Amino acid sequence: MAHLTDAEILALIKNEATRERGFTLLVNKYKQDVYWVIRRMVLNHEDTNDILQNTFIKIWQHIHFFKEESQLFTWIYRIALNETFTFLKVKKAHLKVSIEEMMEQMGETLKADVYFSGNQIQQRLWKEIQKLPPKQKTVFILRYFNNLSYEQMAKILRSNVNTLKVTYYQALQKLLKNFSNNE
Q1: pTM score > 0.90 for this model?
Q2: pLDDT per residue rounded down to tens, the chain (183 residues)
Q3: Extents of the domains making up the chain
Q4: What is the C-alpha to C-alpha distance for residues 168 and 146, in angstroms, rounded to an integer?
Q5: Widest Cα–Cα separation across the chain
Q6: How far is it, in rounded angstroms, from Cα 98 to Cα 66?
Q7: Does the domain at residues 1-96 carry the CATH identifier 3.40.50.1000?
């Protein structure tokens, strides 16, 4: 049963007798990928786990609204990103700082994170990624780290492919500029 398709998992979820088993299969299939999408946005392991849990709670509560007009992973990523953006907004409001200041602080706390094992260059990259505007950061992470196509991102972010290509290019140029300025 480990290699069930999304359609087979959804069929299990739609059947009241197998709903929980189907949902467990869905979680097992997607939790690692969703974890890393969220983790790359918020950097903190504990925050990521909280958002991940909220994401799967939302999926459980709203799976009957999934119309199968898009791929299941697209719908799941959209929920995960919405939960992440909500978390970041609440955190920003609670800290009473700008989003840029909050992202800078998040980049600094990465050094103390026991779950991060990257070297200095990786820490610097993550610190620079945190300085990107939210849309550029999201597009960069989805494209660079998750290897999503522009078409997949367009469905998840409800944007168009050309806009996402430009956004990714702008993010990449900012990162390259920041790396060359800080050498």
Answers
A1: no
A2: 458 999 999 999 999 999 999 999 999 999 999 999 999 898 888 999 999 999 999 999 999 989 888 899 999 999 999 999 999 888 877 666 555 555 555 555 555 555 555 566 777 788 888 888 889 999 999 999 899 999 999 999 999 999 999 999 999 999 989 877 765
A3: 1-96, 132-183
A4: 13
A5: 60
A6: 35
A7: no
Q: Which residues contact 12 (CB under 8 A, 6 or more apart)?
A: 4, 18, 19, 21, 22, 25
**How many Cα atoms occupy the beta-carbon half-sphere of 161 within 13 Å?**
5
137 and 129 Cβ atoms separated by less than 8 Å: yes
HEC string for the chain: CCCCCHHHHHHHHHCHHHHHHHHHHHHHHHHHHHHHHHHHHHCCHHHHHHHHHHHHHHHHHHHHHCCCCCCHHHHHHHHHHHHHHHHHHHHHHHHCCCHHHHHHHHHHHHHHCCCCCCCHHHHHHHHHHHCCCHHHHHHHHHHHHCCCCHHHHHHHHCCCHHHHHHHHHHHHHHHHHHHHHCC
Answer yes or no: CATH 3.90.180.10 is held by domain 132-183.
Answer: no
Find the Cα–Cα–Cα–Cα dihedral 55, 60, 64, 70, rounded to 10°: 40
Q: Which amino acid is at 118?
A: G
